[in-house]
Amino acid sequence: MSEAAAISPAQDASAASEQALPVIRLPMLDSKRELFAYEIVFQDHAEDEAALMRRALATITDGALARLVRGNRTFLRLTHDLLMEETDVLQHQPRFGVLLKPEAAADPALVERLSRMAQRGCPLMLDAGDTTLEFNPAVEPLLKIVQFVRLDASKLDPATLRSRSEYLHARGTHVVAGHVDDHDTYHRCESLPLQAIQGQFLLKPEPVAVPVLAASRLSLLRLMKALQEGNPGPVELGQIVRDDAILSYKLLGCVNSAYFALPRQLKSVQQAAIFFGAARLRNWIYTMALSGTGDRPPELLRAALIRAHMAEKLAQGMPGEQREMAFTAGLFSLLDAMMEAPMDFVLWHLPLAREISSALLENKGPFAPLLDQIRAWEAGNLRGGEVQPQVIRRMAAIYLEATQWADHVYAFADQRPN
Predict the structure, then answer these.
(1) Distance (Å, rounded) from C-alpha 131 to C-alpha 43?
(2) Which of 18, 158, 281, 394 registers the highest number of CB atoms within 10 A of its CB?
(3) Which segment of 21-25, 48-52, 244-248, 271-275 scores lowest on mean pLDDT?
(4) Other CB atoms within 10 Å distance of the CB of residue 81
(5) Are residues 182 and 296 in the same domain?
(6) Residue 184 region, left (φ>0) first, then alpha (ψ -120 to 50), else beta?
(7) What is the mean pLDDT of residues 62-87?
(8) Is the pLDDT of residue 162 over 80?
(9) Is 225 a domain residue?
């Protein structure tokens, strides 16, 4: 079990408030759509850039950033001064690497410093964008020492993206395609010699002329419909889930984990519904059931879980029933991508509350502003100076808590009985 899993929610919230950096983690996926690495992105205008990056280095030392990325390979950007002065910590953390701009190649002292870092095992990635790399003496000093290069797929035409990827691959450099924000670009990238792909394609459904749901997804929608119809209570929830042994196993394993620190073990779904409340348990059943869409990237479900938890926390000023609905709205905001079908088509099968469907289909109602705020946070931009620092600090704390909760819950959602 992860370190985060052994922390109670109250401890999580306290730690998040004290330590949270205004950052987000953006996944890079390999050819199997499994996680290759995270990129740590700082929120725009959150605070002084150098001070923020210095704090980030400190959180590497105390382990907080490692917990945010679950110990996976991670890249972040650092200022020139920090790279020259305070990178010793990275030499003891081989899972953390540095993102570099092409301009760094013009500074011989920095290149020498980076070369020593690379020799000691620090991963380096050149964020090349659309810079010409083939036989370009201006960037050659960096190409000789970096292990990875990221290309901007949104700025390069398909032929250039292919030829540049092949050129780098022939040099023995691992290539990452960035800004892959639609499925057409993603499919073009699938045939290239790439180490990983990164972009908004992950959070979007693939366009289809005629939406068709596979049998497994229809079965999932039938379960979700049963959870909505008639506002089922603890007994009814137990009856709905009892025939699905795997779903019950995941659900009870999660609620009985150390994360929730319950005074006694809950032995049935009905007991769990009585203890936590039917509305909350219904949301967790959604969560565990959605993990059954096993052909979807794990990072997609994690993103939906993070949105759900953030929406619930942002709705703290609302009545209890609306907080649970906010959770559902956040979770279902990526239902089209998880089901690989248009949102209106998917929701046609579900008798959702009007407030939830309005937020998902029309961007209206009480939950629409919450989802807008979450998407702005995911994009790394809360409109800069328009947002008060205390709002950014609160969002950072909520995001950190949400990632820890999502990673914990996903660990159980992904389990299978022995």
Answers:
(1) 25
(2) 281
(3) 48-52
(4) 11
(5) no
(6) alpha
(7) 88
(8) yes
(9) yes
Residue 414 half-sphere exposure toward CB, CA atoms < 13 A: 14
Q: Which domain holds residue 245?
A: 215-379
The total number of structural domains in the chain stands at 2
Instruction: Note the helical H segments in 4-79.
Output: 9-19, 49-62, 64-68
Tokens of 67: 């917990």
In a domain, 208, yes or no: no
Same domain, 272 and 337: yes
Question: What is the C-alpha to C-alpha distance for residues 178 and 155, in angstroms, rounded to an integer?
Answer: 10
Mean pLDDT over the full length of the chain: 88
Last residue of a domain, one of 135, 168, 203: 203
Angle at the Cα of 245 (from 237 to 300), degrees rounded to 5? 80
The domain that contains 273 carries what CATH number? 1.10.3210.10
Q: Within this chain, do residues 253 and 196 fall inside the same structural domain, yes or no?
A: no
Residue 50: the pLDDT is 79
Residues 148 and 230 in one domain: no
Whether residue 254 sits in one domain with residue 285: yes
* Interatomic CA distance for residues 100 and 136, integer angstroms: 17
Q: Which two tokens stand for residue 269?
A: 């779904």
Q: Give the pLDDT of residue 411.
A: 86
For 360, other C-beta atoms within 10 Å of its C-beta total 25
Instruction: Look at 338 and 415; give whichever has higher pLDDT.
Output: 338
The reply to whether 239 falls in a domain is: yes
pLDDT of 202-228, one tens digit each? 999 988 878 888 888 888 888 888 888
DSSP 71-138: T--EEEE--HHHHHHS-HHHHT-TTEEEEE-GGGGG-HHHHHHHHHHHHTT--EEEEEET---TT-TT
195: in domain: yes
Cα distance between residue 341 and residue 268, in whole Å = 34
Higher pLDDT, residue 243 or 337: 337
Query: What per-residue confidence (pLDDT) applies to 217?
Result: 85
Q: Do residues 360 and 332 lie in contact, with contact meaning Cβ atoms separated by under 8 Å?
A: yes
Cβ atoms 303, 200 nearer than 8 A: no
Q: Are 225 and 266 found together in one domain? A: yes
pLDDT of 154 over the 50 cut: yes
Contact at 8 Å (CB) between 117 and 87? yes
Q: Which of 262, 266, 239, 232 is nearest to 252 (CA)?
A: 266
